[in-house]
Amino acid sequence: MSMLSVTPSLNLLNKDQIERIHHDSLEILATTGIRVDSPKAVALFKKFSCRVENKSQVFPEKELIEWAIKKAPSSVDIYSRTGQKSFTLGPGITKEQQNQTRFGIGVTNLHYQDPITDKTTPFTLDHMEIATRLGDALEEFDVISTPGIARDLPPESADLHAGLAMMANTKKPLVLLVSESNCFEPLLEMFETLHGELNKKPFVIPYFNPITPLVINQETSDKIMATAIRGMPFIYNNYGMSGATAPITPGATLTLLNAELLAGILFSQIVKEKTPVIAGSLPAGFDMKKMMSLYTPHTMLINLGCAEMMHHYGIPHSGTSGSGPGWGPDLLAGNCFWMNHLTSIMGKVGLCPFVGGNFDSMAFSPGAVVYANEVIRMSRIFAAGFSIDNKDVPLDEIKSIGSAGNFLMAPSTGKRFREFRLESPIWESLTLDEWQEKEMPKSGKILRKYTDDLIKKALPPDDHDEIMEKGRLFITGRF
Amino acid sequence: MKTEIFEKAMESILKGDAALAEETAKMGLGEGIDPIELINKGFIPGINKVGDLFGMGTLFLPELIQAANAMQGATDIINSAIPENSAQARGRVVIGTVAGDVHDIGKTIVVSLFKANGFEIKDLGRDVSVETFLKEADLFNADIIGTSALLTTTMPEQKKLEDALIEAGLKGKFKTMVGGAPVTRRWAKRIGADAFAENAGDGVRLARELLAK
Ligand code: B12
């Protein structure tokens, strides 16, 4: 990047600090180790000469971890359903693409908030369709992550119908969360049947968690094996609540979560070398009175710290998405979006996949998603910065206008004012008088109406019906 | 002397001071205080107060947990001084997160609050099968089986438990209590569970009601 372009960025950790966190993480793995619940996975760790105690406590050594970090791809290309490259995740990409944080709507909400009234109802398959089309229509969103749980369907097959609805209602890449473990492989098979191979031009990214602190559970290792064998990338995210499942201090939470990610990266590479793994943490605080997770300036710092660690390792990253405290598309939700989206974009965050869940990720709020789209848009403009080169700093023009002149008539104003204007597609600008004349409209009400209109207008992709038909056939053949 | 020891016992629990609680328990027994009186007049008022303060939002969870630990330490010492058959009947609860489900923080908090409210509680951990719930409830001589389910896909395990209880003719013997993010009062009613708890405090209140029945 030229010295004449001003591009703001946020950096937390210096080299020594990175080394320290890495060192302490290795120490955790070497002394506490990680519990691995799957005997098959333990056997693999053993095969790679890890020390194992009590059948399941695995102690990976420094050299092996560092081998895995080198083996894991430093970037992964993600494609649209129709095979166009959508974006690349990872620090191993070109300069221009660096720090392009990607966003998704999500995730696995149990309720849906009415766009106009905010009233919640159980999330259904129809909501799945609405949410996916909304995410598809909003430009700033790059992926769709399983927005909710279709609770109007039997739980043993709901994930399949939900996955199909996602696939049919967008061409954007999908981040996939599967609640019913028996649905996981059938769902991948359905995508393969409808789409062909998932590894060459991956448009589906499955999402898994270990259990903090320091457990790789059976289900997660089974899913990782099924995914890696197919050569697909996957997201490996740990969710730690400081003071509950992770240590209370930010430094210790960051270190512990980093240790878990290293163990996961290692596991991915011993299952199959060069498996693309997108790693990161969803750090949360824990409200010791209300018993729910919460997002604070500290949890955002841990998120950014984790992104820097992954950047340092050369591992594509996925982090937390700032959804949680809202009651609707409101100030509470907006607060957290700003804190998360702007810092993510300015930091080294790769993917923020889960924007849109209110009440600790219980209720999908379409209005919150639309609001977040604006936050992302502005954050992206902010992070793009500005230039101080000759073209952008025309000294001769300043000279010709001189003292006490104005720049309304300046040639560069005429030529470039469109580049620098900021207009909202949602709200018009109003003077105080105009606002009073219009009987004091509420900005939240306008946002809700805008959201509702957007939902009503959002159309499915042209191949929607065809995919739905083929998918239904697949599902009825199976269940 | 007696009242002083009772006050000290109460204070040790309120402060969550395990060392002081154990010391006071030993001191009380050493002074020849009847173990049941020692627990009922010293420690239980302390833990009840803690439960109330937590319920009112005055105490934070870590304080509650420290108090529950102190209580546990004192109770263990005192219980060993009580002859088996005269042990006091307190609510006995087994609790766990259902099979296929790893979410266990809510359940762990429920365990702490039940302890803090003087229940005898056995924590079965997470991913617990219906068979294990039945076996452990029997072994522990439980009054209540509490289950936590955080996924729509694991909620059916709570129904499986009800069915298994009916099948084994144990429906009256163990009361059941269900909880977890997707679980509702309606669901509890539908599957025939005896109670649905919105949160841990609710759980304690309902458990007391169930025991009184
Ligand atoms: C933390 C978390 C995780 C952690 C769990 C770590 C752990 N050790 O518990 C991890 C990351 C491992 C995880 C994994 C998954 N999760 Co999760 N998770 C959550 C999250 C964000 C918070 C849960 C929590 O701890 N809350 C705090 C505690 C204190 O509250 P609580 O559990 O509700 O308990 C209180 C009450 O409900 C009540 N209570 C609860 N049980 C009982 C029982 C009794 C007897 C009583 C009296 C009271 C009671 O008292 C408690 C205290 O007040 C929820 C969202 C949410 N807000 O609930 C999602 C959530 C439950 N998860 C969800 C999903 C989808 C998953 C995954 C499938 C994701 C994936 N990776 O594919 C996996 C499933 C793994 C599995 N098989 O179980 C969905 C549910 C979807 C569904 N189908 O129903 C939710 C709602 C997601 C969301 N939108 O964020 N998850």
Automatic annotation (TrEMBL), chain A:
GO biological process, one term: methylation
Keywords for this protein: Methyltransferase, Transferase
GO MF annotation: an example: methyltransferase activity
Superkingdom assignment: Bacteria
InterPro entries listed in its UniProt record: MttB-like_sf, MTTB_MeTrfase
Similarity comment: Belongs to the trimethylamine methyltransferase family.
Name of the protein described by the UniProt record: Putative Trimethylamine methyltransferase
Species, as recorded: Desulfamplus magnetovallimortis
Lineage: Bacteria, Pseudomonadati, Thermodesulfobacteriota, Desulfobacteria, Desulfobacterales
Automatic annotation (TrEMBL), chain B:
Family: Belongs to the methylamine corrinoid protein family.
Domain of life: Bacteria
Pfam family, any one: B12-binding_2
Keyword Metal-binding: yes
A Gene Ontology BP annotation from the UniProt entry: homocysteine metabolic process
B12-binding N-terminal domain ranges (all copies): 1-90
Signal peptide region: none
Alphabetical UniProt keywords: Cobalt, Metal-binding
Protein name according to UniProt: Trimethylamine corrinoid protein 2
GO cellular component, one term: cytosol
Gene that specifies this protein: mttC
Gene Ontology molecular function: any one: cobalt ion binding
All residue ranges annotated as the B12-binding domain in the record: 90-213
